[in-house]
Amino acid sequence: MEPGKLRGLMDRVRNTIIVLVAICGPLIIPGWNCGRVFAQMLDLVPASPATSVEGNPTRLHEVQAFDRSRIAHREAKRLEKAGSPVCVDRYYEATVFAYAAILATGTTGVTDWNQIPDDYNISLADCLRAAGTFGRLDPRSHLQINGPAGPIVVRVIHRGFVWSPEDFEGLIDARSAPKNPAQHRSYQRVGAGAAQVSVRSNRNLTSADRFLPPRSFFPATAILHPDLGPWIGLAGTPRGGDLLELHDPLRTTCVELAGGRFPLACNLDASVAMAEASVGSRRYALVGFLNPSIEVGNTFLGTLEPYQPGKIPVVFVHGLRDNPYTFTDLVNGLRACPGFLDHFQIVGFRYPTGITFIRSAAMFRRCLRDMEATFDPQHRDPGLQNTVLVGHSMGGLISKLQITWSGEALWNLAATQPLETLVTSESTKTFLREIFYFEPLPFVRRVVFMGTPHDGAALANRAVGRVTSRLVRRAADSLAMIDQLERDNPGALLPYMADLPSSIDLLAKRGPILKTMRQLPINPATTYHTIAGTASMPDRFARGDGVVPLSSAHSDGAASELWIPATHSRINADPQTLQELDRILRVHLAETYGPPPGR
């Protein structure tokens, strides 16, 4: 037999014996350290460490190391199923040998992770999941492992996050994320590391915490750098202790691992899906539309990350029967755009859509002022003072009411006498004043209208719109206020106000509110843009997005107007919308801070 074929046959026989020894050894001799004997068989550990040469370690076989990793992983699965915490150690062992296998490849430079077997990522993800289950992991500080030479305390280091280490209260495997019904495109990157979702509970310790949700979910990618010494005794391997790095995959794209440089794995979908599921956004949208009294108190202006001074807030405002997660594709798409997070930060506004939208606009105005008072009371933050609003559908109308002067125009639609002459409580006067009298917010410098019905929507005029409007329960506090005003001020309220129109009623074409809003003066210091849908029809035949006619979406004076082949409900998810919004924000950034170097 040829020497090459003989060596191949001997290797196959040898590997078979190794697997049998690793599996059967502990059954024959309890407590037997099969791990070290196995490693010696692989030539990963010399029979005597003294035989190794510094800088020229004993032979390291990539395939055999991967085999050892997979054996440990199978054993870990069995132990986990049996409810044994030892599974954490076996998963860790599987990760260590997968790391050793990558090291054995001698990879240098940036390498496509698709060329590397996924054992490392899978074993590490399983290890972290099991460690969390059995109380071995505190993602703020350390991971506890029982290694071949005794206990190992693996330090946890956080890299690149705007969150503090104390915010890492728990890690959830990104693979366990539920489906996000609002998402149409996936935003993931193949690479090294175990994709995780970190969880932070809001203890409301500071005023800034009021702008974070009860639970925040944000992406993290774990990278383990093990000390190979205790496992395979290689001379020349790092002896500084095991290190578990948690990287922000939004801000880090490549990572050093086992002597090579690889793309960092990234999963933006999982954290958003978990956040959506935790707040029950679909239920909120339905209840907030049909019975808004229940959800008025849950109106919320929230940041996706802790507020960052100097970065421009991009505030998303959803439309009728919707919620902030309708912008999932846009938000993830923007966060994936190079440079976006260096200059911008995401903010979302949630409100019950069944109430009259001019009241929603007043609530939004109050929230925006509160944000400025909290983060920029001196009006000096160049980021906040150049805030951008992005409104879809009715959210565009709510955004428009942040950049216009009301004068007496809206109040004249509601009453026949001045507000101050009404017989009512001071709190009611304040309530009405906030709704009907306002000025532009000076720090809102740009607005993007997406499928916004400036002249109304066809659906509101149809039978289904009228029937749906009847299903909407008027807010209890508004009903009580109208009753008191009519009782103590006979004839003061006009029928339009007395009937307490819902948002659907206000969106009816040729309605008085929308006609009046068309005439309200817009702050000349604010720039605005239009994105309208054509429902996939060619431009010359297009009439609208199926809900909002193009004539209604049009706004005189817009700096730009783009038609995209999308229906009303899919404008938010269309790639052309993302491209246009990215373009608009780059223009806004250049006009705010000047063009970037080299442009």
From TrEMBL:
Keyword Transmembrane set for record: yes
Top-level taxonomic group: Bacteria
Organism: Singulisphaera acidiphila (strain ATCC BAA-1392 / DSM 18658 / VKM B-2454 / MOB10)
UniProt-listed SUPFAM superfamilies: alpha/beta-Hydrolases
Name this protein carries in UniProt: AB hydrolase-1 domain-containing protein
Signal peptide (UniProt feature, chain positions): none
Transmembrane segments: 12-32
UniProt keyword list: Membrane, Transmembrane, Transmembrane helix
Gene3D superfamilies: alpha/beta hydrolase
